[in-house]
Design a protein that fits this description.
The longest helix has 44 residues, at 150-193. The chain has a two-stranded antiparallel ribbon. It has helices spanning 20-34, 38-45, 51-55, 81-91, 101-108, 134-144, 150-193, 197-206; strands at residues 63-65, 72-74. With 207 residues, it is mainly alpha-helical.
Length: 207
């Protein structure tokens, strides 16, 4: 949750964070000032036991090779969407973004100007339950087709119906093939399990 600086209560300045290493050092200093243990941080933050130790380690892991897909997977334990929030909660800290004009001045002129409005991606953001309700969904669906001409809408609906029909037909064909294969397997097993079936086959082979 974000809020403008002017509407937020005043905070005690604890550390100035400019990179990831400074963030980890700040957490270490905070835990030391609190005089607590990392196990307690795990418990009050809702993390698994030993997670705080791994997150605050300066050498959290190394790259290992997965035997299944033969791709290198980074096994380093770093802060993520949930772990960062839990660590901030357990240590009583908050991240406050401020503008650093001195560090920004050398690269400010190198930034290209945006021609279109910035579109924020919310694909990986966990949405609260109140954000989308059935009423809002109906309104969104209505607004979606509001500016679409009737003939274009009709053409799109035909394409969607055709795609759904093709999908159902493909699934039915696959189901029939699976059923036929299962029937063949059952008949083969039944024939092989009959008494004397093996002797008959051997005698016919000898003849």
């Amino acid at each position: 949750m974000t809020a403008p600086i002017r509407s937020m209560p005043e905070y005690e300045l604890y550390r100035v964070i400019t990179d990831y290493e400074a963030l980890v050092d700040g957490f270490w200093d905070r835990v030391d000032d609190l005089g607590t243990t990392l196990l307690s941080i795990d418990q009050v933050g809702g993390m698994a036991e030993g997670n705080a130790q791994k997150l605050l380690s300066k050498n959290p892991g190394k790259r290992v090779q997965q035997p299944k897909n033969h791709r290198f997977a980074d096994m380093k334990r770093t802060f993520g969407w949930e772990s960062l929030g839990k660590m901030l909660k357990a240590t009583g800290l908050a991240l406050v973004l401020v503008v650093d004009d001195d560090r920004f001045a050398p690269i400010k002129d190198q930034l290209a100007q945006r021609k279109k409005p910035l579109m924020r991606s919310i694909v990986r953001t966990r949405q609260p339950k109140w954000l989308l309700t059935s009423e809002k969904a109906k309104k969104i669906s209505k607004n979606r087709w509001e500016n679409v001409p009737p003939h274009v809408r009709k053409k799109m609906m035909r394409r969607m119906a055709k795609a759904a029909w093709i999908k159902r037909r493909r699934e039915a064909r696959l189901a029939r093939q699976l059923q036929a294969n299962a029937t063949i397997d059952q008949s083969i097993n039944a024939t092989a399990s009959k008494p004397g079936a093996l002797n008959n086959s051997q005698s016919s082979g000898i003849a």
